From TrEMBL:
PANTHER family: EXTRACELLULAR TYROSINE-PROTEIN KINASE PKDCC-LIKE, PROTEIN KINASE DOMAIN-CONTAINING PROTEIN. GO terms for cellular component: extracellular region. The lineage of its organism: Eukaryota, Metazoa, Ecdysozoa, Arthropoda, Myriapoda. GO terms for biological process: skeletal system development. This is Protein kinase domain-containing protein. The keyword Transmembrane applies. The keyword RNA-binding does not apply. The chain crosses the membrane at residues 21-42. Keywords: Membrane, Transmembrane, Transmembrane helix. InterPro entries: Kinase-like_dom_sf (IPR011009), PKDCC (IPR042983), Prot_kinase_dom (IPR000719).
Length: 483
């Protein structure tokens, strides 16, 4: 445009009017072109801001800007279309700051109300995210945020220099992906999302200025804690694993693969196993190798070689088999056999073998695990091994409304109590059988409390040389030592 101005400013001796007209048209065209360039540059720069790509990207057309945060337009369905999730999972770079209305399980938690979460305490941190516990209107919950001191963000800063906001958004993309997936994949063994905050602006470090996801509060899993659980509680975990495997193989998004299927990705919420970290989850089975009719599945330990058929260019069943192998390795194969009732061991061994060899699909694993639970709940496993000698009944004296609280407690294997011998039983007969086989047991107290399977809790005692106390909720049985 400067060159046009220079030419037009030159002295014109002849046909001055024509030249002025030509110069005028040229200047107008130059100005118009310059304005278009400025507009394109502005849009390109603005697309790096939170939410700009959000509006222009067809993947995110279901979201809208409300005040200073992003919400989902379809507040009734609480769903993001499957194709959107597939793209989001395939390419995190397409993610911007967006979100959807959380279910009102506690209340509507958003950027405006997240500051009302009190009593915050640090729980754990990984390379990308940090988790805090908190209390919101008398409800305990967990808050997941970007770990600003984590490996991923710090590595990004070393690579990009001082561009903190870009690095923060890159790490926050994992939380955004989890928000979408947890709202799309609703299951009893997946963490419930109570709310979130996705601000339409830069990270400020203050309430309402951070990307955060608010969920149920769970207990982390560790190997020692798992092995100290009763077999009944570990059975519940294995049932949760089986249910989750089947759901992942048949989810609304298709067959899902847990690329990081480890205990660290799960928590316990009131004894129920819950998947708490899904940012490494992927959709779609891998494509078949060129010119081959089957796909080989590579495993880390190398002790097992698996193969699945190619169906329409896809390795059909790849994700399901890989999930089964990892679930067995990190959960079922060491949780289920330890402490299992003798009469249930054959079925337990069959289930463990299926995990190790991947000889069953997730549907059969779930069905057989449910059969195992039913046998345990119904007491069918007792029929073959139960002591039916009528003299056992005569060895115990029954005292209604009696208890020995805090007295004569002793430790026993697989106890539900940390300082006593507390076990669950199918009925009084099983309690008598247990006490009769235990030389340390001299009495037991039957409570009105039950476990998740509906079995009755019983406290076993090492003595009864003390007058019992009255308790309308318990019944005391004393072993007759004179027999």
């Amino acid at each position: 445009m400067d060159s046009v101005r220079t030419i037009c400013r030159a002295p014109v001796r002849r046909r001055g009017g024509v030249m002025r007209l030509i110069c005028g048209v040229a200047l107008f065209a130059s100005i118009l072109m310059y304005m278009c360039l400025l507009r394109n540059q502005f849009e390109d720069e603005s697309s790096n801001l939170p939410g700009r790509t959000f509006i222009r990207n067809s993947l995110l057309k279901g979201f809208y800007l409300e005040s200073d945060q992003w919400r989902l337009t379809d507040t009734a369905g609480h769903r993001v279309n499957s194709e959107s999730v597939r793209h989001l999972m395939a390419d995190r770079r397409k993610l911007e700051f967006f979100g959807e209305d959380g279910e009102e399980l506690i209340d509507s938690i958003s950027c405006n109300t997240i500051g009302e979460i009190e009593e915050r305490e640090f729980l754990a941190a990984g390379w990308t995210k940090a988790v805090y516990s908190g209390r919101y209107h008398e409800h305990l919950l967990a808050v997941k945020v970007v770990n600003t001191n984590g490996h991923d963000l710090q590595a990004c800063l070393r690579e990009k220099g001082d561009n903190f906001q870009d690095c923060y958004r890159k790490s926050a993309a994992k939380i955004l992906k989890e928000i979408v997936l947890f709202k799309q994949l609703v299951h009893d063994n997946m963490l419930k999302v109570f709310g979130y905050c996705i601000p339409n602006g830069d990270f400020t470090g203050k309430d309402g200025g951070v990307v955060a996801m608010v969920t149920e509060l769970g207990e982390p899993l560790d190997i020692i804690k798992l092995l100290q659980m009763s077999w009944e509680d570990r059975l519940r975990i294995c049932l949760g694993v089986a249910r989750l495997l089947y759901y992942m193989a048949n989810s609304p998004l298709g067959s899902l693969a847990m690329n990081d299927f480890r205990r660290q990705q799960f928590v316990l919420v009131k004894g129920e196993l819950k998947l708490s970290d899904v940012d490494d989850m992927s959709v779609n089975e891998p494509s078949c190798p060129s010119g081959k009719e089957a796909c080989d599945i590579s495993l880390l330990n190398g002790n097992l070689t698996l193969s699945v058929k190619c169906v329409q260019g896809v390795c059909k069943g790849h994700n399901e088999k890989l999930n089964i192998v990892k679930a067995g390795r990190h959960f079922t194969t060491f949780l289920l056999p330890h402490g299992a009732p003798t009469q249930l061991r054959p079925l337990v061994d069959e289930i463990v073998r299926a995990y190790n060899t991947v000889s069953w699909d997730s549907k059969k694993i779930l069905r057989t695990t449910e059969d195992l639970v039913q046998m345990y709940v119904s007491g069918k496993y007792l029929k073959k091994g139960r002591q039916l000698n009528s003299k056992i009944i005569e060895k115990y004296h029954k005292f209604n409304f009696s208890d020995l609280p805090g007295h004569f407690d002793y430790r026993c294997q697989l106890s539900l109590s940390g300082n006593g011998c507390t076990l669950s039983v199918f009925d009084i007969q099983e309690a008598k059988d247990i006490c009769s086989r235990d030389a340390d047991c001299k009495a037991f107290v039957v409570t009105n409390q039950t476990t998740w399977t509906g079995r009755t809790l019983v406290h076993f005692k090492s003595d009864f040389s003390r007058n019992p106390v009255w308790n309308s909720m318990t019944t005391l049985f004393l072993k007759d030592t004179t027999v």
